[in-house]
TrEMBL record:
Domain named ABC transporter: residues: 33-254
One Pfam family per UniProt: ABC_tran
Annotated protein name in UniProt: Sulfonate transport system ATP-binding protein
Phylogenetic placement of the source organism: Bacteria, Pseudomonadati, Pseudomonadota, Alphaproteobacteria, Hyphomicrobiales
Keywords, alphabetical: ATP-binding, Cell membrane, Membrane, Nucleotide-binding, Translocase, Transport
Keyword Transport recorded: yes
PROSITE patterns, A to Z: ABC_TRANSPORTER_1, ABC_TRANSPORTER_2
GO molecular function, a single term: ATP hydrolysis activity
Family: Belongs to the ABC transporter superfamily.
Length: 262
């Protein structure tokens, strides 16, 4: 269970407590996401076949399934890069009809521009106040001291942190993660899991994570779904408390149950 600490405790006497201003809490960013009967084909191949899903605001959902079942196609529909043949994507009651400024997508490849510095890569959109926002985002991912360096001198994990900072600058309401840690070594993946979980707990953006790693899914998500034959075929809540421990027998049993459905 997360330990909640009151920063005012022990700093003032009970008599003086009324004079202490309440501690401001970050505003949750997440929005409700609904997928309603999505269908998408490529030629004769039906990739999504009436897929529906309702994700409450701020929930973390992991999507697992074999290669080619439509997971990445689903992400493209949510972000507005593609349109379904039937059905619709709805965010906070508004149908998605094009690119969404409140939705951000993080890929497996960091996709940094090698001729731009770390800071410039994070603030690539050059919106008003971009420099301050980029510095803050780099601080959030632990790279405040690397902002003037070039992507080529960074490790794979550091480059992915830069990519994560780049999506955080836009303060996303919906964060889409398309196997973002698949190319990292085991130790770096664990570190990135901890970083992502911390940022999600702070900001509570609605999150969809595509992964082939079932252990990763149950370590991070509130809920794991399985996609097969273009449909959602399995949906289970992960009730384990945070922070989670990979040796937890409950999580191991849950992994076996999910693997049996993939």
């Amino acid at each position: 269970m997360l330990k909640r600490i009151d920063p005012r405790r022990d700093l003032v006497s009970a008599d003086d407590a009324v004079s202490v201003a309440p501690v401001a809490q970050p505003t949750p960013l997440g929005k409700r996401l609904k997928l309603e009967g999505l269908k998408r084909s490529f030629g004769p191949r039906k990739v999504l076949d009436g897929l529906s899903l309702d994700v409450p605001a701020g929930q973390f959902v992991a999507i697992v399934g074999r290669s080619g079942v439509g997971k990445s196609t689903l992400m493209r529909l949510v972000v507005g890069l593609d349109q379904p043949e039937e059905g619709r994507v709805v965010i906070d009651g508004e149908p998605v009809k094009g690119l969404q400024s409140s939705v951000r997508l993080l890929f497996q490849d960091a996709r940094l521009l090698p001729w731009h510095s770390v800071l410039s890569n994070v603030g690539i959109a050059r919106t008003p106040g971009w420099r301050e926002a980029a510095i803050e985002a780099l601080s959030d991912v632990g790279l405040a001291d690397r902002l003037n360096e070039w992507p080529a001198v960074l490790s794979g994990g550091q480059r992915q942190r830069v990519a994560l900072a780049r999506v955080l600058v836009g303060r996303p309401s919906v964060l889409l993660l398309d196997e973002p840690f698949g190319a990292l070594d085991a130790m770096t993946r664990v570190e990135m899991h901890g970083l992502l979980e911390r940022l999600w707990l702070q900001r509570k953006f609605t999150t969809l994570l595509i992964t082939h790693d079932v252990a990763e899914a149950v370590a991070l998500a509130d809920r794991v779904i399985v996609i097969k034959d273009g449909r959602l075929t399995f949906d289970i809540d992960v009730a384990a408390e945070r922070p989670r421990h990979r040796a937890d027998p409950h999580l191991a049993a849950l992994q076996d149950k999910i693997l049996a459905e993939v």
